[in-house]
Hints:
The protein is 36% helix and 27% strand. It has helices spanning 40-47, 72-76, 93-100, 107-120, 137-149, 167-184, 195-201, 219-224, 226-231, and strands spanning 2-11, 14-24, 29-33, 53-60, 63-64, 78-81, 155-159, 187-192, 204-209, 212-218. A hairpin with a 2-residue loop joins strand 9 (204-209) and strand 10 (212-218). The relative contact order is 0.19.
Amino acid sequence: MLKVQSISAFYGDVRSLSDVSIEIKTGEIVTILGSNGAGKTTLIKSICSLLPIRSGAIYYNEERIDTMPPYTRVDMGISLVPEGRRLFPDMSVMDNLLLGAYPIRDKKKVQDALDWVISLFPWLAQRGKQSAGTLSGGEQQMCAIARGLMIRPKLIIFDEPSLGLAPVIVDQIFDTLSKISQENNTTILLVEQNAQTALEISDRGYVLENGHMVLEGDSKTLLASPEIQKSYLGL
């Protein structure tokens, strides 16, 4: 479904990614691991055309997309749940969700999508009129996920969904990601520092260090890797 082929990306004259490649098959959950500054968010920005690449290419369903503007990703069925949630805090929960369905012109499809995300996060129904900025951190993250799901994406990208959240909330969120993948065959690209939990729900994983891809493999193999255990699991 998604093929990132030998891309390099820069911030000004500073190289952030160097010859990075990943592949994601339809229906997979793939995790990108890496410490702060490793290039994880840069990779996501490159995939979404929020940061132009200097070399390489990015393909989605065999169509090259790195030369296309960012908004085309949504029409193709790609959704992003960004780091830090990026909700509109002064708008209601319901309005934030409806913004996620902005490209959809069929009112029935919008309502069907709304019913679906509320089935995943039932509390949204009671908080529809509440300002998104007054939600707890965990609720804001769930609202951001629900907004990202409103287009019923084929591929959804999560950038650090567990950041700053209590372990019990993290478990709820990752359980929901597994459910989305299994019940809807939605492909998920998950960028995370929480290696244990991320790899437990993933099919495969990659490890970024200083803008280079240094390790890849199926999730069970990576969890058993001495490098992963030392660097990310504290073992």
